[in-house]
Amino acid sequence: MIDQKLIELMIILLLFSISISIGLKQYNMEKYKAIMTTVYFILLLIVSFFISNIYSKNIIPFINNNLEFLMAIIGMFILYTGFRFLLEFKNKKETSYLKSESKKNSLKEKITNNLSLPLLLIGAYFGILINLIYVAPVIWMSVFELGLICSITSFIMIISIYLILSNFLKVKSYIYNETIGIFLILSGIYYLIVYTFIPNFQSSLTDKMSPLTLPEINMMITILIIAVIAIVIGFFIKKSKKLKNLL
């Protein structure tokens, strides 16, 4: 029987691989650049798995004790990245009508309008790394051994999906722009539900608590952090005209 944690790792690997493939297609990257970006991403993962394997005695306990909190941060980061993709798409769509031939975008604007893919790669990197370090000891494998298998699998999935989208599915570019944003938003919500709300809900059902017993401190901290971040995001959405128009 396949361990539940291994299934969760496979789902995360699949979700991030699909996200990166659509993200590469959304940026209209050449096949060579898309493949090289994927290669660099996979090599960074493999090197990180190798280093984590050396210091596994220190890293594994930290990940085990803070998995839900770390994945809650990843979930909110991916959620933000999804909105970022939608916002960039809206900005590029508007500037395509307004820009003139004599006016060039500044370096700051170019970076700001092309930040979503790097954010996605960062979120995918930490999401895969954290979950794999957590799962490896559960299925009695070394971090590097399992990491090598998952890295090769992810590379094959990313390149395969990207080539399918590029060569076999002729879809208009704006559909990719909207799809990747919505897909990442749903993925971020999935991470928050699976790693934040479900574990705390299960622990509250299994723990024998008297009516005067206070909730688990980790649950209270997680809810407080999410509430604060939600308030901050809501404040900026209220103040930002671009986000108002986006939503």
From TrEMBL:
Pfam families: DUF2162. This is Uncharacterized protein. It comes from Methanobrevibacter cuticularis. The keyword tRNA processing does not apply. Keywords: Membrane, Transmembrane, Transmembrane helix. The chain crosses the membrane at residues 6-24, 36-55, 67-87, 117-140, 146-168, 180-198, 218-237.
